Amino acid sequence: MSTSKLTIAALAGDGIGPEVMREALKVLQAAARRFSLTLDITEAPVGWAGIDAAGDALPETTLALCRRSDAILFGSVGLPDRDPTVPKERRPERAALLRLRKEFSLFANLRPVRLPRELSHACPLRPERQGDGLDLLVVRELTGGLYFGQPKLTEEIQAGRRAVDTMVYTTPEIERIAHVAFRTARVRRRKVTSIDKANVLENGILWREVVTRVAGEYPDVALDHMFVDNAAMQLVLRPTQFDVVLCENLFGDILSDEAAALAGSLGMLPSASLGITSGGRTFGLYEPAGGTAPDIAGKDLANPIAQILSAALLLRHSFGLEDAAKAVESAVEQVIARGLRTGDIYSPADPSARKVGTHEMGDAIAQAVG
Ligand code: IPM
Ligand code: MG
């Protein structure tokens, strides 16, 4: 869908959120100028910023803004040092982020992991394991599994306490995320690796059965299955074997961080969390997969690229603006090729690299967009 006006809620959140958001908005404005788009962006507090502003990690006014927007550009939330000051249900991770995912049924989380050749120095793997650079996509189920399953509780028992989380998936939940994985594989290298723990978990058996059945509708896409422990190992031994990696919620959380480290840094990993498409429109929340990094917040050290690439995903998935999305992605590639590096992806062993701050990186990318 291409639209004349893009209504976007920008929720920067905590830690490095505000400073990387500033750079992403700058890049979006540059894309808007080049492609004649009209942006209607409203910023609102979320996370600890929401608690400070309105006593709630997801203030009513912020939620209302999200409801009347076409997409949410999200920063990051959570400051572990402040956790003891509020009950766990009111902390930002659950009360804002998980709530938004559930509220808007954002079941499909796409995390594209790319290691361009120029960042070879930032990858912890030996060059012979990196192939021509890495390019894989984690498709993570985002509204089921252990994160949301009931019962979920901690209770007192004689021997101390007892904590329960419940892993639960239904056939339709597995089917819809499997379809997302197979459809995206069709525009990539046509291979899906489905992750489970079918040797131990009931959920794993069902997951494997349902994914195998859905695969029948996509004869042009190759499917293989891998136990999650093996997948964690294969990612470091032979990451080039992966194209689309399909995971349930917790496995996807873990493997996507591991994969991001292979791509140089968590600061490079964007994500799209998508709901159901209706009337040609897909509501989505777009956020960097890394956290708030409170230790470097406010110091002009954070890498804004994950936030900027999340804005590119927003242009693509919520608005169908493929050209604008590509322009942002190629601006990031150009700037990396020119040697600009924030601290997390900088290596003194790389002769062409020059260390820059958050602002300079954002400015250079905005300029490269045109
Ligand atoms: C992520 C994050 C979140 C998650 C946290 C902040 C709740 O780690 O988006 O990967 O576990 O989903
Ligand atoms: Mg995570």
| Number of DSSP E strands | 14
Name of the top-level CATH class of the largest domain: Alpha Beta
Radius of gyration: 20 Å
**Largest sheet entry:** 10 strands, mixed
Which stretches are low in confidence, meaning pLDDT under 50 for 5 or more residues running?
Answer: none
Sheet with most strands: strand arrangement: 2-1-3-12-11-4-5-10-8-9
What's the rounded overall pLDDT mean? 96
What is the beta-strand fraction?
Answer: 15-25%
Into how many domains do the coordinates divide?
Answer: 2
Compounds present?
3-isopropylmalic acid, magnesium ion
CATH architecture of the largest domain: 3-Layer(aba) Sandwich
Q: Under CATH, the topology of the largest domain is which?
A: Isopropylmalate Dehydrogenase
- Based on helices, strands and strand pairing, what is the structural class? alpha/beta
Question: What's the CATH H-level superfamily name of the largest domain?
Answer: Isopropylmalate Dehydrogenase
Number of helices: 11
Helix content: 25-40%
